Every structure is written in structure tokens, then in C-alpha cells.
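go over this chain:
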Amino acid sequence: MTPDHPPQHPHASWKFPEAFWTANVVELFERSAFYATFIAITLYLTRIVGFNDIWSAWISGGFSAGMYFLPPFTGALADKIGFRKAIILAFSLLTIGYFTLGALPYKETVLPAFVVLMFGGSFIKSIITGTVAKNTTTETRARGFSIFYGMVNIGSFLGKTFAFPIRLEWGLEYINFYSAAMTGIALLTVVFFYRTSNTEGVGKSFSDAWAGLIRVVSNLRLLTLICIVTGFWIIQQQMYATMPKYVIRTVGETASPEWIANVNPLVVVVCVVAVTQVMKSVRAITSMTVGMFLMPFSALSMAAGALIQASHGSAISVVGLFSAHPITVMMIVGVMVQGLAECFISPRYLEFFSLQAPRGEEGLYLGFSHLHSFLSSLLGFGLSGYLLTAYCPDPKSIPPELLQHAYDRAHYIWYYFVAIGVASGIALVVYGRMTRGSKSLA
């Protein structure tokens, strides 16, 4: 997702304070740690810890939801105690949490570990973006946030890239040790290199953040849009909720959902600027609607892999260069479409959200712009657990004599998300017509 920022001054410099560069470097480490663990989170909870698909989904969804809900509140605390103290606390919590997941993979210990990670990660979201904002000027802010956005995506790509060989060579629990190492390095970097101005007492208070949440959810127009866009993110969440188990159970242990998921940030980085430029003259709702109606095609592509396998076997040629499993190929196509849809939706959604805020409260409102991710984490992961249980169950729960045909209907999962995408797209069209003429849709 791209930050909302002003046009870049033609003479803006690449020179930034040391705190800016330190914050961006540790952001890369933190994102690498998070995505390495998150792409395998449901597999870890089922295979290593012993939760079934439903419980694994709800725990993962709750963890993700907390990461999106807490930043405005932990950000208020970071403003109070100072960014340096807060970021040291954050990386300490993250390192402890990830190490605990690797060393103590038991039902009694993983839930407290996820709570620790949730709070540590929510601090990072507010501190890093706050550091970028405080260490840039009007002329350098766009360039500063573009560097930040690049670090986020590089970290995401590296984390999922390393997660695949670690899973195959050592096991799922060792991915958490990798993540602990990344946040441990970040912690040492912060201790020795992160210096920033004193920020105690600066910014919004906890009560301000809570009041902001109440104002956002009391805005019926904004709340309606949040609920509609949640449909998009429910489908997007399946890259982590459903896809890893689906691919491994239908293709095999050597399949790489980690690398398949990496297609998404690659498409976003390559296409987001061009798509935003092409759509800049149309209403925000129009751009978002285009993206919303791409999502059913994403889910259809993912379902199509099983149909192609049924007619062409377990290997198909990819432009004559190599052969691959049709489920893998069509999953990549589906993730590519999701990435393209995100380019149409995310930047314009932020634009819409910021225009809803009263003058002077844009930052407070944008702090809650990810409420759709809070909702989609709970609903998307929760639904995934039930669908996997019904159509693509854990092989350990299937009698050996039934295993051969146990996944014949596994692709039905994606039809549910086709329906969610179509319903969300139609709802957005209706919403756009009902709110036509609003300044926020200009």
C-alpha cells in the first residue's frame, strides 16, 4: 500500500538525518521477520503446535487484526515515552515473541507469544512512520516515504524468500528463529545507531486516539466504505490464510506458497505508479471499483488450477520454457491479479479517507484507515478455517483409503471468494452512485 504524500519538490535532496536511515533499515529487518513467520503461521499452528484448521485460522486472524487495530494507541504511548525508548521496547518484545514461538511451540505458550508480538509489532507501525514524518520536510517527504515503502516491500520479499528453504531444510519452527534473529539485529542497530530528538509529550494521547476511533466509526459514509472494502481484503488475506495449506495439500510438500506470495509485492512495486497515473483523472470510487471487480477473476484463476489439472495432468508447459503444476501456475496468476487490483484500490482509498477528516485531524483519521484490515483479518482467516475443514482438510484427519479423492472439491473454496468479490464490487457501485457529488469522490 502506498503512502499519501504531497508532490515531490524538483530540488529535493536525498540527504536525511541518521535517525531516518536507521528507522528504514530496521523496518526492512522487521518486515522480513514478520512476513517470514506470517506466510507460514497457519501451517505452524496446525503442524507444530497441534491446533486444527479452525483454531489456527482464528488465532492467526486475531493476531493480524490486533496488529492493525493497536497502532493508534501504542503510537500515543510512543509519543509519551519517546521514540527511542519505544522502539527499543518494541524490538525487545518482537525478539522475545519470535524466539518463544520457535523454542516453545506449545498451546500454552504460543498464545502469550502472539500477544507479545502483537504489541511489539503495533509499536513499530507507528514509530517508523512517525520517524519518517518527523525527519523529512515538505520538500523531502514524498521521497522519504518512497524509501520507506521500498524497504517494506524488500523486507516482505526477503522474509518469504528465506521462509521456503528454512521450512524444507529445518522445519516450520525454525522460521521463527530466523525472525527472532532479524528483530534481534534490528534491536542492536537501534541501541547503537538510533538517535532522534526528544518526543516525550508530543502527539495525540490515548484518549485522543479513542475519541478518533469513535468519530471514524460514527461517520456512516466512511464506515460503509470500510465494510465494503473489507470484502477486497478478505480475499487478499487468503494469500496467508488459505493459500499455503491449499497449495501444499494439493500440490505437495515441495510446493512454494512462500514464493508464490512474493508475486504480490513484485506486481505492486512495478505497477502502482503507472496505475495511479492512468487513473488520476477519475473519481476515487471509479478506480476502486475497477480493482474490486478484478478480485473475482483472481479467485476464479485460483480455482481454475484444479480444473486444468483434471484435464491436462499434474504438469503443464509455461510458454515453452519449463513445466509446472497447474495449481501453482494459476495461483501465481491469481496473486498477480490481486496485486494489480491493489494498485487500483489502495492509493485512492487513502485519498478518500483523508478527505473525510476534519481539517487538522487528517493524521488521526488515517491512523484508523486500516480498520478494513482489522475486520478482514478476523473474517477472512475465520472463514478460511471452516472452508479448509470442509473442502481441503488436514491429511492427518483423513482415513488412508479416502486420501486419494479427499481434495477433489478443494477448489470450491475459491468460489466463495468469487462471490464475496462480486458482492463487494456491486456494493461499491451502489455506494458510488449514492454518494455522487461528494467532495471525497472528486
